[in-house]
Amino acid sequence: MKFLRDLLDKQKPLFQKGGKLENLYYLYEAGETFLFKPNHTAGIKGAQVKDAIDLKRMMITVVIAMIPCLLFGIYNTGHQHFLATGQTAGLWEDFGPKLLIGLELVLPIVIVSYAAGGLVEAVFAVVRKHPINEGFLVTGMLIPLVVPATLPLWQVALATVFAVVIAKEVFGGTGMNILNVAMTARAFLYFAYPAQISGDQVWTYLGDKAPVDGFSGATALAVAYNAGVEGENVTSALNTHNAAIGDSLYGFANLFIGWIPGSIGETSTLMALIGAAILIGTGVASWKIIVSGFGGAYLMGLVMNMFAVNEYMAMPAEYHWVIGGLAFGVVFMATDPVSAAQTELGKWIYGFLIGVLTVIIRVTNPAYPEGIMLAVLFMNVFAPLIDHYVVKANKNRRLQRATV
Amino acid sequence: MSKTIKLKKGFDIKLVGKAEKQLGDFKSAKTFALKPTDFIGMQRPKVTVSEGDTVKAGTPILFDKAMETVQYVAPVSGEIVEIKRGDRRKLLEIKILADTNISYEAFDKFSEDALNSLSKEDAVVQMCKGGVWPQIIQRPFGIVANPEDSPKAIFISAFDSHPLAPDYGFLLEGEDKYFQAGLNVLSKLTSGKVHLNVDGNATIPGIFANAKGVELNKFSGPHPAGNIGVQIHHLDPINKGEIVWTVNPYGVVQIGKLFLEGKYDGSKKIAVTGSEAKNAVYANTYMGACVDSLVEGNIKQDHIRVVSGNVLTGERINRDGYVGYYHHQITLLPEGDQYEFLGWMKPTASKLSYHRALGLLSFLNPKKEFVLDTNTNGEERAFVQTGVFEDVTPMDILPVYLLKAIMAEDFDEMEELGIYEIVEEDLALCEFVDVSKHPVQEIVRKGIDLIQYS
User: Fold this and answer.
1) Dihedral (C-alpha) B230, B232, B238, B244: value to the nearest 10 degrees?
2) Where are the alpha helices (DSSP H) in B158-307?
3) pLDDT of residue A199
4) Using CA atoms, how far apart are residues B20 and B454, in angstroms rounded to an integer?
5) Of B374, B385, B401, which is closest to A49 when you measure between CB atoms?
6) Are A319 and A398 in a shared domain?
7) What is the pLDDT of residue A404?
8) B243 near B138, Cβ under 8 Å?
9) Contact indicator for B130, B264 with CB cutoff of 8 Å
10) Interatomic CA distance for residues B234 and B238, integer angstroms
11) Domain end: A166, A183, A200, which one?
12) CA within 13 Å, CB half, B305
C-alpha cells in the first residue's frame, strides 16, 4: 500500500492551501481518508488517546445492516416478475434468471442514487468548504430500498438531489438536518409523481410480458384497506388474494418473510429484523426506538380491534408488523440519530408515536395506504419538541434542588 | 451521615503499564519548574524572583495579581535558572536548579493541640503564605479557591479512577499524621462538612479509613467514580451561587506538614506509567520535577509521547518537560502519527473501543489491557450519534445539550443544564468515546470561562 500512500502524498500539495486545486481540497480529503485513516494525533491537552470508532465505521455498519434487505429485494423483484407473468410458481425455480432481472432493475437505481447524491455532496463540500459527510453512505442505500423497482431512473436522481439539498444541505449538512433525508426523497416522489410510486400497477415489474389472467398488483395494504371498505374479513381477503397464481401469497408467513410486491427493500419483515439485530448488537441504532416503534404499532392495532367499526380495524394487530413498510421504516428510518429524538426518554416516546401514527394513518386515512413514511417525517418534526420537554425536566430537577 | 454510592455508568480504559507499588531507582531530577499555566483561572501571574536568585523550598516566587494573598512557592531550594516566556511574554515556566540538600523556609510550627485551638483566620494566613493554598480548588469553575470565601462543604476524593492512576495508599504511605492534621485545618475553613470519599471497590488504606472528623463516603463503579465532580453531584450538588472546595489528598498532607513541621514540603511520589515504560514504577521526587531522568533509558522505543497526568485529562510535555503541579503520574504512550490503510473499516481487536460497531472487537475481551497510541482514529464531524455521552457520565446531566449550549454561547442554557457542576475531567470520557471527535474538554473550559468572566 506504500505506493498508494506515496501517490497521495505527492498530490497533496496540489490541494493544500496555495495549491492549484486548493478549492477541491475536500474532494481530495474524502478520497484520502477513505483509503487511509489519517495521521492526526490527540491535542496537547485533554484526552491523549481516542476510541477506535469514527463516523465512517458507524455509517458502514448501517450499510451492512441493510445488505440483507437489499439482497432479498433484488431476488424478490425477479421472483415477483416471474410470478405475475406466470413463468414459474416455485420460489427457487429459475433462480438465475430471477436474480438477473432483479439485478438489472435494482442495481441501476442504487448506482443512480449514490451518483446523484454523491455529486450534490461533492458540490456542497467544495462550495461550502466542509468535509464530505459519511452520512450519505447510508442515505444513498436507503433511497433505493424504499422505492419500487419500476421507478424511472431520472425520478430516482431527481428525488435524491431534492432530498439531499432541501432536507440536508440547506440546514448545514449531516448532523444539522431535521428530516430524515431518505424519507424526504420518498415523500417528494410520492407527492410529485404519485403515478410511479402508488396504486396497484407499479410494485411488480412486468416488462413486455402480459400478466396472467386474474393477476392483481395490489399491495397487501391496499388489499386490507379494500377489504375494510367492502366489509370482507381482512385475513381471508389477504389469504385468497391472487389465488390464480399461488396459494396464500399474502398469508402471514409470506408477508413476514416478504415474498410480496412492494418497494425494493421493505417487503421483508424478517430481513428488517436481521438488520435490527445487527444495529442493536453493534449499538449503532437505539433499541429503544425500534422496540417502542413495534410496540406502538401493536398497541394501536389492539386499540383499533377494540373499536372495530370496520373490518380493517378488526385485522389482527400483528398483521400491522408485516404488511407495508413498518418494519423497515422503524428499523432504518426512525433510528436515524440525527432526525430522531436525542434524549433517552424522548426515544421511547418518539418510537412509540411513530408506531401509533403509522397504524392510524393506515387504517383511518383513505388517501394514504401506508403510514410509516408520513409518521416518520411527522415525528422527525416533533422530535425536538419531545426533547425540549425531556431537557426541561432535567433543568427543573436542577432548579428545584436549588430552592430546597 | 456517610453514604455508599454505587455508580453504573462510566467506562474503565484498561491500559498496559500500571505502575508497580515500588520505588524505582531513578536519578534525581536536576531542575524543577513551577508552571503558571497549571493554575487554571490565574489571571495576571507575576514573578517575584529573577534569574540568578537563590530560593529555599517555600520561598514565594509567583502570585496572581488578581488574588495577591495567595503565594506560589518554590518546591525545592536552589537557583532560579530560567524564567521561560512564550508568545506575548506569556509566563510559561519558572525553572529552579535544585540544591543537593534541600533547605526550607521556616513557617510557624504547631503542636497537634495548638492546631486545634488555631483560628480560621490564622490558618488561612499561614496556608496562603506557606504555599499550600493552591491545593484548594473551588467548584464551580475548578480554579484556585479564594481565601475570602467560605465554602458550603469541602470534598476530598481519596482515589483516582483514571486510567493507570497511582494508588493513593502507596503515594501517601506513612503520612497518616499529616493527613489528619491537614483534615483538622480544613475543617476550620468550612461551616459545612468535610467529605472524604473512598473507593468502595478496594480495601481502604488505613490513612483514609482512620481519618477523624470527616464524612467517609464510599463510591464504587467504573471511572469516573473517583472524580470529585461526580462525587459532589451525588453527595451535595452545587447550585448556582454556591461554592464548594475540593482538595487532593496529597494537598491535605502538604497542609498538615506545613502546620506540624513548619515547612513547605514539595516532595512527592510520581507514578511512571504507560505501555512504553520499561519500568512502570513510582519515583521519589519533588513537585514540578523534570521528567528527563524518568524517561531516558526507561522507554521501549523512541517514538513516544510523554504525558504529564493520565491519558484522559493529561497534557503532552517534552521529554525534558516538567510534571504538572496537580499531577501524580506521567504516562508514556506510543505516538500515533501514522496512516493506516483502510483503517476505518479494518476489524481490530487490538484497539480499544467503547462501541461495538462493525469490526470493533475489543468488547469481546473486557479484561484485556490495551496498548493505545495517540492517533485520533478519525476526523472531527458534526454530532451524529446520540445517547453515548449519557452512558459514560454518571450524573444527571445531558452532556450533548450542554456542549451545544456552550458552542452557541447561550448563557442561560449553560446554567440551566448544569455547567456549575462540571469541569473538564468530568466529561473527559465523552471526549474519548466521541464518534465525531470533538475537543469536549476544551469546549467545557470555554463554557466555564464564558460563565466565569462575564
Assistant:
1) -130
2) 168-171, 176-189, 206-209, 228-235, 249-260, 292-295
3) 84
4) 46
5) B374
6) yes
7) 56
8) yes
9) yes
10) 10
11) A200
12) 25
The residue type of A185 is: A
Q: Are A82 and A125 in contact (CB under 8 A)?
A: no
Phi, psi (5° rounding) for residue B366? -65, -15
Please check whether residue B8 touches A, CB under 8 A: no
- Confidence class of residue A402 from pLDDT cuts 50, 70 and 90? confident
Containing B444, the helix (H) or strand (E) segment is: helix B440-452
State the average pLDDT over residues B425-432. 96
| Cβ density class A62-99: b for 16+ within 10 Å, e for less | bbbbbebbbebbbbbbbbbbbbbbeeeeebeebeeebb
With CA atoms as reference, report the closest residue to A121 among A68, A59, A74.
Answer: A59
CA angle A328, A330, A331 (to 5 degrees): 65
Q: Which domain holds residue A164?
A: 15-37+55-200
| Nearest-10 Cα torsion for A34, A36, A42, A47 | 70
Instruction: Please identify which residue in the block is written with the cell numbers 523556609.
Output: B105
Distance CA A29, CA A22 (A): 11
How confident is the model over B333-389, as pLDDT tens digits? 999 999 988 888 889 899 999 999 988 899 998 899 999 999 999 888 888 888 899
DSSP-derived secondary structure letter, B213: S
Please tell me whether residues A171 and A289 are part of one structural domain. Answer: no
Pairing mode of beta strands B315-317, B340-341: unpaired
Using a CB-CB cut-off of 8 Å, the residues of chain B touching A292 are none
* A309 and A186 housed in the same domain: no
Q: Find cell 413495534 and name the residue.
A: A294
What are the backbone angles phi and psi of residue A41, rounded to the nearest 5°?
-120, 165
| Interacting residues of B51 by C-beta distance below 8 A, sequence separation 6+ | B80, B81, B82, B83
Instruction: Categorize the per-residue pLDDT at A370 as very low, low, confident or very high, splitting at 50, 70 and 90.
Output: confident
CB-nearest to B335 from A41, A47, A398 is: A41
Are both A292 and A404 inside the same structural domain? yes
Nearest to A41 among B313, B351, B376 (CB): B376
In a domain, A214, yes or no: no
Asked if B385's CB is within 8 angstroms of A337's CB, the reply is: yes
**B384 close contact with A: CB closer than 8 A:** yes
Cβ–Cβ < 8 Å for A140, A163: no
With beta carbons under 8 A apart, name residues in chain B contacting A386: none
Question: How many Å lie between the alpha carbon of A348 and the closest alpha carbon of chain B?
Answer: 12
Considering the domain boundaries, does residue A209 fall inside one?
A: no
Query: Would residue A392 count as lying in a domain?
Result: yes
| Interface membership of B428 toward A (CB under 8 Å) | yes
Last residue of a domain, one of A173, A200, A227: A200
SS3 state at B291:
coil
Residue A348 falls inside a structural domain: yes
Q: Determine contact: A67 vs chain B, CB below 8 A.
A: no
Total domains in the fold of chain A: 2
Residues A172 and A288 in one domain: no
ipTM, two decimals, is: 0.91
User: In this structure, which topology does domain B31-105 adopt according to CATH?
Assistant: OB fold (Dihydrolipoamide Acetyltransferase, E2P) (2.40.50)
CA separation, residue A49 to residues A161, B88, B280, B437 (Å): 39, 31, 19, 11
Q: Look at residues A245, A229, A277 and name the one whose alpha carbon lies nearest to residue A69.
A: A277
The domain segmentation of chain B, as residue ranges, is 1-25+106-336, 31-105, 376-454
**Cα-trace Rg, chain A:** 23
To the nearest whole Å, the CA of B342 is away from the closest chain A CA by 5
B154 φ/ψ angles, rounded to the nearest 5 degrees? -120, 135
Question: Are the C-beta atoms of A65 and A278 separated by less than 8 Å?
Answer: yes
d(CA B154, CA B157): 10
